[in-house]
Design goal:
Shape: globular
Strand order of the largest sheet: 4-5-6-7
Oligomer: single chain
Low-confidence stretches: none
Structural class: mainly beta
Largest sheet: 4 strands, antiparallel
Distance between the termini: 26 Å
Helix content: under 10%
Strand content: over 45%
Number of strands: 22
Amino acid sequence: LSPDQSHVAFVSAEKVQIADLSTSEITVLGPEAAGPIRFDDAGRRLAWITTTGRAVTIAADGTGRRDVLADNGMALGSDALLSADGKRLFATARLAGAEAPNAIVAADLASDTRTFTKLYEPANGVLTGGLDLAAGGAFIVFVQHTPGAKPESALRLLSADGGDMRTLARAPAIGGFCLSQRATRISFSARGAAGRLLLFECGLTPDPASGEILTRRLAEVDGADCLAPAAGPDWTIVYLLVKRGEAPATVARVTHK
């Protein structure tokens, strides 16, 4: 859904298409997406990774298509994201034959480049949960998971130039996240002490009094996991899936106070 809720992008007949919700007019934009289809902040351009492993960025009216390829030794993941000014394209990637995305890569759309270059690669671990922008596009939000005897996930901010890293929260597992409260906070699903996934929230900057980035629990459902948080259109509500065992998931919501 575009930021102004006027258009929706979707996959049909192995093509990415966009519908104008006021006229029901549908435009075919390009090849099938392997993952999310993302609008830029202005709603004028879209980006996605194709099932053949290339990134596509195109205007919402179907013009100005540009394909960006993986560099040698790189395979793109399924997540692509345009910078706030639309001049850069970020994506997850697998380097050195990794089985899961283990790097964030970037392409400069303001130049003639047609390939991605590495922006960030952790010493160990993989990237889960996709990418998003925070602080007006100054930072990329992502989850880094380190497997092992004591697995750990970290919710992190990476500056858009790759020069600064900030860890917001850690847990044995972090399932997903979304920006909330007008992109000033992040809601995320994380494994608690009892082994269930709960819904938490944290800020983007340290608390002035303690110097720490504070985390608070937003929701816990007895005997169930809280999954896939998504911010409501007015930023004050977070929607989530509540899953109990093999039963179908139900949709719940949490209102910020």
